[in-house]
Amino acid sequence: MKEAFSWEAFNKMPLVGILRNMPPEALDEIAKCMIKAGISTMEITINTPDALRAIREMVDKFGDKLNIGAGTVCTLTEMHQALDAGAQFIVMPISDEDVINYCVIHKIPIFPGAFTPTEIYRSWQMGATMVKVFPANDLGPGYIKDVLAPLNEIKLMPTGGVTLENLGDFFKAGAAGVGLGGGLVPKALVQAKDWKGLEKLMSNFVRMYNKSTL
């Protein structure tokens, strides 16, 4: 059953698990691992084969326990398709004004992507819920800290290159959330159907976040 985006759950554990090109038959187990580990937010990228069906099925099965949204959304058409499938939030690798405006008007959490301080500030001005700093691979936590020094009112969500080892550093630098792909859901564990191993890894991310915010 679909529920509204839970800010209470997200704020308690602001880690977004990004699923790209995952086997459809593995999604249920991945969702169960996330729930058991205490991660509340799942992003299914729209460029995954059968992404809309996957979003719809995940919302139907887990929409009362997980925030389930669509990622890699670049156009209004993709946004509408994702929302029609039941997506509870929208994540973009870029900042498209039309998509942001629609989500702001309709009170849909929107996480547009930006890279430079100018792009980040522009996205925030348009009403972004949180600005996805992407790609964060080479920028590192220092970049987040530097951007937030003059722009401290902006909520940033670095994505790309966030690992168990640097997760705490990103939050200590001021990140309001992070997007996690292969670091959180390694394809090797999924292909091996090592669900206990996956749950353990996810639990380690949760513990690292809690440790970094003490």
Q: What would your notes on this structure say?
A:
The protein is an alpha/beta fold and 214 residues long. It contains ten helices and nine strands. It has helices at 7-12, 27-37, 51-62, 76-84, 97-105, 117-125, 140-148, 167-172, 187-191, 195-212, and strands at 15-19, 41-45, 67-71, 90-91, 110-111, 113-114, 131-133, 156-158, 178-180. Strands 3-2-1-9 form a four-stranded parallel β-sheet. Strands 6-7-8 form a three-stranded parallel β-sheet. Strands 4-5 form a two-stranded parallel sheet. Helix 2 (27-37) packs parallel to helix 10. The longest helix is centred in the C-terminal third of the chain and has 18 residues, at 195-212. The N and C termini lie far apart (34 Å). The model has no long low-confidence stretch (mean pLDDT 96).
Properties at a glance:
14% strand, alpha/beta, 9 strands, 214 residues, globular, 4-stranded parallel sheet
Please sum up the structure shown.
With 214 residues, this protein is α/β, with parallel strands linked by helices. The protein is built from 10 helices and 9 strands.
